[in-house]
Each structure stands twice: as structure tokens, then as C-alpha cells.
Amino acid sequence: MPAWAQVSGGPLRPDEVQDLSAYIVNFRDTAVQMSPKDVNQQFKAPTEGGGSAAAAGTKLNVSGKAVGTNADAKALAANDALKGGDAKAGEAKYTAAGCAGCHVAGVVAPVTAGTFTRIQDERLKDPKNQGKSAEEYIAESIIHPNVYVSPNFAPSVMPQDFGNKLDVQDIKDLIAFLESQK
Question: What's the structural domain count of the chain?
């Protein structure tokens, strides 16, 4: 997914991302039916993987063995297997995957800042997430984003195919980065 926000290497200022996000949310039914060919694209099409120049050298799925979209987050999290990631590498992967494009303004998706605190103080206390660890919750949110949709946000906005793009190390690194967002 290409980055939209300048903080992620995209062309839009934060206020422009908010305006665009509000437009999409308010006109989602129409916007979802449109294809890229229906939109006047005056900018060069992003390269595969999107992201900023700073993250251009960051590769996702280094091992070549994606976890898959059918991956079981509980099984992945078993025995603390999702702990010990590299937060700095996770931040680079977060940028390279274009995550900040939607998570920067808090209109389309929850903002990145405060993620881990919200997970501990709110998300894991929700009965739908009872018994999950923070790592399992984050992995599930990445691989199966519609299992639990954060309050006040729409389902199916987050790409549903990250399981086919990320390996276990990618997920561990992303978890470490998100856990640093308190």
C-alpha cells in the first residue's frame, strides 16, 4: 500500500490526509466501487510496496515464507514466539508498508501514537479480546483485521492480505514497534 502522508514519504500534508480520509469515510460506498482508472491520477504511480525513500531499502518478507492469510494468531503467539522483535526494523517496515498513511490522522484508522497503551487499557479488556496477549492481538489485527474492528472505525479498510506479505520476523518487528508506541 503506498504512503499518502509526507511523514511516510507520500505527497500529502497531515491536513490533506485528514480531508481525504474524511471524504473516503463519508462517501465510502461510492469510493469502494471506483477503480484507480476511474480517478484522475496526476502523480506517478507508486512502486510496489509504496513507502518513503527512507524505507525504500526495507524489504518485507525477507524469509520468503509469508505466514498466510489463514495464519492462527494464537498459535503464532504461543510460547512468546512473537516477542523479541526489533522496534527500529519494525518502524522501517511500518513505513515501507504504508501503514502510517492511514494511521497518521486517526480518521480512517487509529493513530499510531498511544497504540500499546490503548491495547492494554482498552482493547484487551473488551470481552471479544479476553485472554489474548498484546502480541496475539497485534498479530491478529495485522493478519485478520476484521476479527476485531476498533470502535468508531469501519471494517475492511485495512488491507486483508498482509498475511501473504509478511513473515514471522516482519510481524515480530512490527509488534516491537507498536509496543514502543505508548
Answer: 1
